[in-house]
Amino acid sequence: MFSKSCEYGIKAIIYIATRSLEGERVKIGEVSSGINAPEAFTAKILTFLIKQKILESKTGPFGGFFIDNKKMTEINVSDIVFAIDGDNLYKGCGLGLKACNSKQPCPMHDKFIKIREDLRKMLETTSILDLTTGLKSGKTILTR
Asked: β-strand 64-66 against 56-58: which pairing, if any?
């Protein structure tokens, strides 16, 4: 459903947000280890998310990645998905056909419309804070 970059981006944001709630900044090695992702790839994604104003960082010995606590309620999962993957999730064909549309639908086209709309609503109404709550309480996990 999501690209690997987007999966890592979402997991990294959740990990960083959870630590930010505790007033901590997180170094890249800790983020990549915490989400079980390659460090260089994670660094590239996080740098991109900083440019998109979703994430912040400070340099130096007390530096690292963080998210302002107020922004955690404002940033929705859809913001991360759109920043990394664009809107292909809502537009692409469920079977990967290039010519699929309402005039020439694939066999799954009509059923996918409802699923995509439900997915869009869920991503737009789920904040980063919503996702960190489950992780902090131990009800959800980021790695296995």
From this structure: antiparallel
